[in-house]
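Hi R.,

Here's the chain you asked about this morning:
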Amino acid sequence: FQMANPFLYNTGERSHYGCLGHEVQIEYLKAYVCRPSFSTDKAVIVVHDVFGWQFPDIRYIVDLIAGHGYITICPDFFKGTEPWKSTDHWPDFPDWMKNHDPLKVDKFLSLLFFICLREADVVLKYLKEQCGAKKIGIVGFSWGGMAVHHLMLKNPQLTAGVSLYGIVRDSEERYSLLNPTFFIFGEKDHTISLDQIFLLEDKLKQYCKVPYKIKVYPGQVHGFAQLKPEDMKPEDKPYIEEARRDMIDWIKMFV
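And the predicted structure, written out as tokens:
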């Protein structure tokens, strides 16, 4: 497993976050849900990164999206098992991945197929039956960004997707997106090279028949877009806010 931390970024000190939503049980999954102040039939699923569904940054994003008028839900895609923690040791990461049924390093599709597709169906059922959602988008970060890329190839019920810094793996099966998908990357991401991003763009031009967009944000590293305002560095703040506006605009356009 010769890879520089493929999913990890410097979580640093995180400020406390008082969540606006609440936790629910959906069949065998726990999830965090936040609803807007008015009734709506539009929903967004947020797919967390390796730090899991309880990580403050992810819950902040759920609340942020809900504030724009969407029933927003972040399920526990790790199904009650321990998420990766910033205090864990990187050499243990491969074993952690094995215990989470994740990719077999070179077979990203197998991870995402087994973990995400089934769970996504459970959550879609909940959103439609319990929340009255008719249009459902999906947003994912890092590990979740890969999940979004995969689900947008497999699940036509998802009307739009935003994949934020999901690692790109080349395969001819990765480009026939079913619905509009927006890919967000940081220019200085140590896990995703600009060459990989250019390759993704070239292949989407060849194979993709639905709207898509790729955008790279100057000077930004892996994990940049999910920071809470008080945790941002002043020089990064404009790009973080721009990425979030772009994410919301894409959702509003298609969901």
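Helices lie at 56-66, 93-99, 108-129, 143-154, 194-207, 237-254.

Let me know if you need anything else.
M.
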